[in-house]
Design goal:
4 copies of one chain form a homotetramer. Chain A is an alpha+beta fold and 240 residues long. Chain A folds into 2 domains: 163 residues, 2-Layer Sandwich (Gyrase A, domain 2); 65 residues. Chain A has 8 helices and 5 strands, in the order E-E-H-H-E-H-E-H-H-E-H-H-H. A 5-stranded antiparallel sheet of chain A has the order 1-2-3-5-4. Chain A is elongated and about 70 Å long. In chain A, 56% of the residues are buried. Chains in contact: A-B, A-C, A-D, B-C, B-D, C-D. The interface between A and B is large, with 59 and 60 residues. Chains A, B, C, D: Its EC number is 2.1.1.148. Chains A, B, C, D: GO terms for molecular function: flavin adenine dinucleotide binding; NADPH binding; thymidylate synthase (FAD) activity; thymidylate synthase activity. Chains A, B, C, D: InterPro entries: Thymidylate_synthase_ThyX, Thymidylate_synthase_ThyX_sf. Chains A, B, C, D: It is an enzyme of class 2 (transferase).
């Protein structure tokens, strides 16, 4: 499997990947000039040890590549992770590449994320961040309709502005951009991917980005079962 | 001077800086265990040589720190530079830190960039990117008014959604976010800053980000006159 | 104080630094557009929270710059930390710059680290790495003498080779290089420095690099007392 | 082919690689949601354009992985490139991982690089760096013999010290380490690899590292012919 649908119109596609759990083991044992060709119990214990002790450089020799199609607000949180948090919280930004579509060019019709009537969430009770229970279908239905109308109005004004000769880089000021889908390539090491997962699978991450994190997990776990298990477990217990 | 106004409501503030042109010279001469305490002609020639030959690591020992308040579309281009382009085009992301405000929290009233009647630009004649001449004041006035109205409608819907109990992270879908001001701290080496300048001062960069690049230049040039002169000149001739 | 002697001929010099504990607080609160000008109890609690939760990006806006003179084997471990471990174990290599002297040029007489008679350590009992008790002064005295003799022989051959017209980059093959002193500039964020400290102050780090870590701590702690306290404590409890 | 011998006992082995010239093209066109499945003339022109304009982020989505066995002095220059120069001169350190053997453990007999009688080079005439003509076979033969003797003496003292109970991390002070072979895994993006090549294939790079650069080129060029051609050509003309 190499494709998972996410939200109303988004997706994650696994474009490519390099290496296996064995790559981690062989990189870690470069001092010993020993190379395994099949993963055994001892190798799995080594992976566990590396994850637990934070000796995560061997996990950087395994690479994954995804194409992602997601609302801009999700892309922005992802970027912040790559720039700020990731620098900060433990992955190194290294082994990350990012190529993304731009609204400075007119390439595609703008497409927007619209939560369905039963997908609008209340504000959380005891936190400044995140969300709580789902709102009533009545309230939700009203919001969905209003958002669709507001987006349509924006797109009309955007197109009218283009028609009037305005450059695309300014006309886009009319777009309700947080929900607009953007597409990008993300190439990252297994270490970076797992750090992203451990942050974004958490219950206080925005629901929409959690959905993308789950898709990433679903696509990647079968390829590196031992490493992903250990890295995510380890990070969880760290933050408890 | 440590503050420059940009666009209708934005600014760049120089928060702090470390080192001088001499820092570059002393880092480059660490092999020789010689340290200068005053910048002389020979030092300036060394700076020129380092910039010309691409031996730019000594410029990474000089650090600048800014607070920036700019529309989200400017922030996104800046980030892409930091993640993608910068990784790619020559500065290393190293010696960059970024901390930015978030609309997942309700902290401030949203504030928006609105081009004035004489600030709307046409699309360029022979390029898919960038912009051309300024449109007529009549067309411009109409666009400015429409944008103000559209923003007001969005902000009203955003606030009504919050009132109805919607979490902030979803309510923001109603905001025409490309023009919304965000605020961030940027800490970067002189090498990164100059690479940013050489990219963003160019005539094909979006006008709005050019304005920020000019503010960065105005605040930084007096602090490292020789290094900034040489690095920007050098990069220019590279891309010619 | 800005200079600490380390080992027999080495040192760490604090060349420059930028910011204070308040910088961390202000970078973290950029969302709120509030800026403190004096550090209070609430600020210290915020620093503690950031360190505990791994939200370490604000610590990247504080920068330190050192000149270090240390044996090559110490420099290599430091580099590995900067490249491998640091990428891997949590600091991001970002906000690090490194400029170092080179033996490809003939710039200074080679100078070597020689442990004194009471500084030779035994191998550890239950580990493949690290060291145990100090050996007897008799054994130690013998080793010190032999090392001095071996170094002298190497330096003579090195100089004879240069005399015979050999290029410096090959003549250096005669130098027992692990103990040879090299000098470098290291510019790093507070986050990187603290990650380095938490790794290299540990009892299983090589004694020689522990001594440099202590010098770094001694020079840096008075400048950022709250941040360094919290970051190092936090990392300690993480790895327990 | 996946293995090239270098110097007297070293080698480069291509362990793995990901993507093709098409990957670069598809990453660059993510804005247009068009994906090529076969490389055509238009794609090659795009690659040329990207390399020439310095829009090198698409080249970061292609990854190569090598195992390298080389003298420590070569490894150090390589690292400096990865840390310092690379940060500085244009690749981003991103998408690099490094795992290397260590002499803090006793894992293998130390093995040393010894130039043959006809491989000793003179110092360059008009430069502080690099090397000139090969010395006479007589002088060379003498140097080779002396180096072998000096290494043997060092290894004997190293082993005697281990025998006497000295920890490995101190005993290694007796090794003439510049020529000692170390082994490491290097995982890097095509952009990083080409930047390394453009630096290290140059005539003023140390001959020994030039040999490794040639091996990297030989192993990699057939996999990404268009990209490597354009990136290296481009960098050459940049530095002219």
């Amino acid at each position: 499997m190499s494709f998972v649908e996410v939200l109303d119109k988004g997706y994650v596609r696994l474009v490519n990947h390099m290496g296996s759990d064995l790559t981690v083991v062989n990189a870690a044992r470069v001092s010993y000039a020993k190379e395994s060709s099949e993963l055994n119990e001892k190798d799995i214990r080594l992976i566990r040890f590396l994850a637990r002790e934070g000796h995560t450089s061997p996990f950087r020799h395994v690479i994954l590549q995804y194409e992602i199609y997601a609302p801009l607000m999700v892309a922005r949180q992802w970027w912040k992770y790559v720039i700020g948090a990731s620098h900060a919280e433990g992955t190194g930004d290294s082994l990350e590449a990012w190529n993304e579509s731009s609204r400075r060019y007119i390439t595609e019709e703008p497409v927007f994320y619209v939560p369905g009537p039963d997908e609008w969430r209340s504000k959380p009770e005891n936190s400044k961040q995140g969300s709580g229970e789902v709102l009533s279908a009545e309230t939700g239905g009203q919001l969905t309709k209003e958002l669709i109308d507001y987006i349509e109005a924006g797109v009309q004004k955007y197109e009218a502005a283009l028609q009037a000769g305005v450059c695309a880089e300014q006309a886009r000021l009319f777009l309700p951009a947080y929900g607009m889908y953007v597409r990008w390539y993300w190439t990252a090491s297994l270490q970076s991917v797992c750090h992203f997962l451990s942050q974004r699978l958490e219950h206080d991450a925005q629901k929409e980005i959690q959905s993308y994190a789950k898709a990433i997990l679903e696509l990647s776990k079968p390829l590196y079962p031992a490493s992903i298990h250990e890295l995510i477990e380890q990070t969880k217990s760290d933050s408890e």
